[in-house]
Amino acid sequence: MTVSPAKKAIKPSSDNRSGDSPQLSHVVVAAGTPQEWRNFGSVDWETRLDDIVRGASVGGAQWITLLPYGGEVLSVTERLSLFEVISDAVPLRLVGEGHLMRGVWQKSSVLTIIVDPSPNGQVRFAAILESLRMNNVTAQNLDEALLAQHVMSPADVEPDLVVVFGPPDQLPTSLIWELGYSELVFLDLKWDDLSASHLELAVDDFDRRHRRFGGLDS
């Protein structure tokens, strides 16, 4: 899929400052490495995606994005091989090209899961900029909304919650843009330990927070 230079507004996370539970539209899960993902068979993926959906959707999210915590960048051939395995577990369609290729599972009319095996956020961001340049997008007509559109694609809203399966003193290499306004919950667990109950705890933690949207407590 060729990236279109046409602008499409990305909805910001809902700024709920009334003291009620914050709205949850988009959950990002950062866990494992592409190499660990490739060790999974289709049955493993069916179970893992079911866990992610059951756990991360309890707060009513419409979008769930799965990214690695880190690891080595896959070749395009390796990406395709990974998506073939996942496609045997769930009906997956591919969007994007090359190192921007993602798998999208339309779980229901109100829930979409994005599987992106990109372990390096800087590489992913550079690939997006290059794709935009190839589509004749110049610095003069490049803005935050357009960048957000292609970083989040096909989601139309930025993440509210990022659940990191890793140590709390280290950020995942896969995330750059997603960290700007999201709430972060760290679970010091490995890819093999991920379960629906862990994600439910993360969503419960999110529900009790007062969102700062990148700001500091006064």
Describe this structure in words.
The protein is α/β, with parallel strands linked by helices and 218 residues long. It has one domain: Decaprenyl diphosphate synthase-like (Undecaprenyl pyrophosphate synthetase), CATH 3.40.1180. The protein is 31% helix and 16% strand. It has 6 helices and 7 strands. It has a 7-stranded mixed β-sheet, covered by helices on one side. Helix 2 packs parallel to helix 6. The chain is globular and about 45 Å long.
Write a concise synopsis of the structure shown.
This protein is of the alpha/beta class and 218 residues long. The chain has a single domain, classed as Undecaprenyl pyrophosphate synthetase (3-Layer(aba) Sandwich), CATH 3.40.1180. It is 31% helix and 16% strand.
Number of helices in the DSSP assignment? 6
Please give the largest β-sheet.
Answer: 7 strands, mixed
Roughly how many Å is the radius of gyration?
Answer: 17 Å
In the predicted model, the low-confidence regions spanning at least 5 consecutive residues are 1-9, 15-19, 214-218
CATH topology: Undecaprenyl pyrophosphate synthetase
Walk across the major sheet and give the strand order: 3-4-5-2-1-6-7
> Percentage of helical residues?
25-40%
Shape: globular
Q: Could you give the distance between the termini?
A: 45 Å
- CATH class bucket: Alpha Beta
Note the run of SSEs as H and E. EHHEHEEEHHEEH
Number of strands: 7
Reported CATH architecture: 3-Layer(aba) Sandwich
Which structural class matches the secondary elements?
Answer: alpha/beta
How many structural domains does the protein architecture include?
A: 1
